[in-house]
Amino acid sequence: MIRKLKQDDVSSLSNLLKRIDSFSEQEHDVAMELIEIAANNPLQTDYHIFVYENDDKKVVGYHCTGKRPLTDGVYDLYWIASDPDSGIKGVGQSLIKHAEEFVA
After folding, report:
1. pLDDT value at position 72?
2. Closest residue by Cα to residue 7 from 36, 30, 50
3. pLDDT value at residue 41
4. pLDDT > 70: what percent of the chain?
5. In angstroms, rounded to a whole number, what is the distance separating the alpha carbons of residues 97 and 84?
6. What is the pLDDT of residues 37-82, one digit of tens each?
7. Do the Cβ atoms of 95 and 77 come closer than 8 Å?
8. Contact 65, 74 (CB under 8 A)
9. What is the pLDDT of residue 98?
C-alpha cells in the first residue's frame, strides 16, 4: 500500500536510507531534511512524500516529489528509494507509477 508520510515513519525512513550503499552520508542528511520538513509541517506544499508499506505495515520505500518553483505544472522527483532488504520486487516501479499519477 502507498500512503502519505506520517510522523511515525521518520525513523523507519532514516534506517532504510542508511541501508542503501549508493547514498552517501550527505545524501542521507539531505533526504532526511526533506522528510522532516514534510513530517513536521503537514500543511507545507513544497514536498509531497508517500511511503510504500508492506503487508506487515513496515515501510519499505518512499518517494518525494515537489512542484518546481516558478513553473506552471512542472514537478520534480526529488527522492525515490526502496529497502534493499525487503525482498519485495517492484517497489520502485510502484512508487514511480504512483509519483506519475500524483503529479498528473
Report:
1. 86
2. 36
3. 94
4. 100
5. 19
6. 999 998 999 999 999 999 999 999 999 999 998 888 899 999 999 9
7. no
8. no
9. 97
Q: Which three cell numbers stand for residue 66?
A: 515537489
Distance CA 53, CA 72 (A): 31
| Short-list 64, 62, 66, 57, CA closest to 94 | 62
What is d(CA 56, CA 68) in angstroms, rounded to the nearest whole number? Answer: 35
DSSP string, 57-69: S-EEEEEEEEEPT
Span 5-12, mean pLDDT?
96
Tell me the sheet residues that pair with 66. Answer: 76
Task: Count other Cβ atoms within 10 Å, centred on residue 28.
Answer: 16
Q: What is the DSSP string of 34-81?
A: HHHHHHH-TT--S-EEEEEE-TTS-EEEEEEEEEPTTSSS-EEEEEEE
Identify the pLDDT of residue 73. Answer: 86
Residue 88 is placed in which grid cell? 519485495
Number of residues that this document lists for the chain:
104
